Amino acid sequence: MSTTTAVAPLTTQDADILVAAAHRAAEAAGVTVSVTVLDAGGQLLAFRRDDRAVLISGETSTRKAYTALQLNAPTADLVDAVQPGGLFHTLPTALDRPLLFIAGGVPVHRDGRLIGAIGVGGGAPEQDHGFATAAVEAFA
């Protein structure tokens, strides 16, 4: 008989910490962004869009978070996988919600288990990835 240890889910308080950390990183770089945090089931826990951020950045951050959650990997690591001949070449059209393979989505783990994801949109993809990574590192 095996036993498993329960892992605490991502809470709204956790999500607020992630959003604040991502925004601090973006503000330090002078970039306006939108940040989305999803729980392990893909439900929205937190969202924030800077007033000066482009409206589409909210959809972008949400899709980046969803992609990182569904594939349990940073979106920056998945770009090559969706190119023709790549591992996930047909995946974006196989799911109900479109995935977005642009850097800026990062899964969130606790005790080695996936508990959610963060997505950042509004800056250059490499910047968004850095802001999301900084938030996850600050959370850990």
Mean pLDDT across all residues, rounded? 87
Number of strands: 4
Reading the helices and strands in chain order gives HEEHEEH
The DSSP helix count reads: 3
- Decide which structural class fits the backbone: alpha+beta
Largest sheet: 4 strands, antiparallel
Shape: globular
The low-pLDDT segments are none
Distance between the termini: 31 Å
- Helical proportion? 25-40%
Over all CA atoms, what is the radius of gyration? 15 Å
Strand residues, percent: 15-25%
State the strand order across the main sheet: 2-1-4-3
Describe it.
Strands 2-1-4-3 form a 4-stranded antiparallel sheet. It starts with 11 loop residues before the first helix and ends with a helix. α1 packs across α3. Helices cover 34% and strands 19% of the residues. It is built from 3 helices and 4 strands; from the N terminus they run αββαββα. With 140 residues, it is an alpha+beta fold. The mean pLDDT is 87.
